[in-house]
Write a structure and sequence with these properties.
Blueprint lengths: L1 H29 L4 H12 L2 H12 L3 H26 L2 E2 L5 H21 L1 E2 L1 H24 L3 H13 L7 H33 L3 H13 L1 H12 L3 H26 L2 E2 L2 H25 L1 E2 L1 H19 L4
Antiparallel strand pairs: 1-4, 2-3
Helix pairs in contact: 1-2, 1-8, 2-6, 3-4, 3-8, 3-11, 4-9, 4-10, 4-11, 4-12, 4-13, 5-11, 5-12, 6-11, 8-9, 10-11
C-alpha cells in the first residue's frame, strides 16, 4: 500500500507535469507567443513543476527535511546521475551559445544555496530575493537570445509554427489539459510526500535521506528522460542546457516559492553532508565545461560512480 502511494504519487507528478506543459504550450501558441518564450518559460520551468509542488507540499506538511532535500538532491542527481548517464550515451558538448552564461548563473545559484544551507534557514525575504533573481535571469536570457545569431533559425521555426498552428490543440483543449495537469501534480505531490514521510518512519531513516534520494530522483524523471533522449539523438547540448536550467530553477524558483509559502529551517544532516556533495559536483561540472568544453564518457562514468557511492552511503547509514 505504501509503495503504491509513493509510486502512484510519482506517476501522477510526471503525467500531470507533462499534461500541464502540453496544455500551457497549446494556449501560448494559440495566443501567438513565440517559441523562444515557450521554450524558456513554459517548457523549461514547467518540467520542474513536480519538484516545486513536492517541496511546497512537504513544507506545508511540516517536513522541511523533504522540502530542502528534494531541491538539493535533485541538483545533485541532475549533475551526477543525469549528465553522467547522458555522457555515457554520447559525450555532452558544452560549446553551445549561452552555456557559459547559464553555467555562471548555475554556479551562483549553487553558491547561494550552499550559503543558505550552512546558515541554516531560508526566511521569506530570501525567498522573495531568489524569485527576483529568477525574473532577472529569465529577462536577461530572453534579451541575450534575441541578440544571438541563432535567432534567424528560430524565426524560421516561428514561421513553420504559424503554418501548422491549425493542427495544434485549441485554446479550450489547452486549458483543459492545463487544469488536469495541475490537479494531477497537486494530488501526486500529496501522495508522494505522505508516502515518503511514512517510508522514512518504517525504514528507520531520516526524512532528509528520503528527500535527497526517493523524492529527488522521482521528481527529476522528466529531466532524466529529456537528457537521455537528447543524448541518443546526438543533441547532447540540449541535455546540458536542460540540467543547467533545471538547477537554476530548483534554487531560485522552487526554494524561493517554498520559502515564501513558509520559512524553511535547514536540517543539520543536509547542511553537514549533502551541501558538500553538491558543491563538489558543481566544481567538477564547471571544470569540464571550461577546460574540456565537453563532458566526455570517462567523466560521465566517474560522475555515475560517485553518485553510486553517495547513494550507497546514504542507504547504508554511512552518509
Amino acid at each position: 500500500m505504501l509503495a503504491a502511494m509513493v509510486l502512484g504519487g510519482l506517476a501522477l507528478l510526471v503525467a500531470g507535469g507533462d499534461l500541464l506543459v502540453r496544455g500551457a504550450v497549446a494556449v501560448a501558441r494559440r495566443a501567438g507567443v513565440s517559441p523562444l518564450v515557450i521554450g524558456l518559460t513554459l517548457v523549461g520551468f514547467g518540467t520542474s513543476t513536480p519538484e516545486l509542488l513536492a517541496s511546497v507540499q512537504a513544507a506545508l506538511m511540516g517536513s522541511p527535511d523533504i522540502a530542502v532535500g528534494n531541491v538539493v538532491g535533485s541538483n545533485i542527481a541532475n549533475i551526477m546521475l543525469i549528465l553522467g548517464l547522458a555522457a555515457l550515451v554520447s559525450p555532452v558538448a558544452a560549446d553551445a551559445p549561452g552555456v557559459r552564461r547559464d553555467l555562471a548563473v548555475t554556479g551562483f545559484a549553487t553558491l547561494a544555496v550552499v550559503g543558505l544551507l550552512i546558515w541554516g534557514a531560508v526566511p521569506r525575504w530570501v525567498g522573495g530575493a531568489l524569485l527576483a533573481l529568477l525574473a532577472l535571469y529569465t529577462l536577461g536570457t530572453l534579451i541575450a537570445d534575441r541578440r544571438d545569431a541563432a535567432m534567424a533559425r528560430l524565426r524560421e521555426g516561428e514561421a513553420e509554427l504559424k503554418d501548422t498552428r491549425e493542427f495544434a490543440p485549441g485554446v479550450w483543449t489547452g486549458v483543459g489539459l492545463t487544469v488536469l495537469g495541475l490537479a494531477g501534480v497537486m494530488l501526486g505531490a500529496r501522495f508522494l510526500v505522505s508516502g515518503a514521510v511514512e517510508l522514512a518512519s518504517r525504514w528507520g531513516v531520516s526524512e532528509s535521506v528520503i528527500g535527497v534520494t526517493v523524492v529527488a530522483i522521482g521528481t527529476s524523471l522528466p529531466e532524466l528522460v529529456t537528457a537521455l533522449v537528447a543524448a541518443a539523438k546526438k543533441q547532447s547540448d540540449v541535455a546540458l542546457g536542460n540540467v543547467l536550467g533545471s538547477n537554476i530553477f530548483n534554487v531560485l524558483g522552487i526554494l524561493g516559492v517554498t520559502a515564501l509559502v513558509t520559512p524553511i529551517a535547514v536540517p543539520d544532516e543536509i547542511a553537514a553532508r549533502d551541501t558538500w556533495i553538491l558543491a563538489v559536483s558543481m566544481v567538477a561540472l564547471a571544470a569540464a565545461v571550461l577546460a574540456l568544453r565537453q563532458i566526455p564518457r570517462a567523466l560521465g562514468l566517474a560522475l555515475l560512480a560517485g553518485y553510486g557511492v553517495y547513494v550507497a552511503g546514504l542507504a547504508g547509514g554511512l552518509g
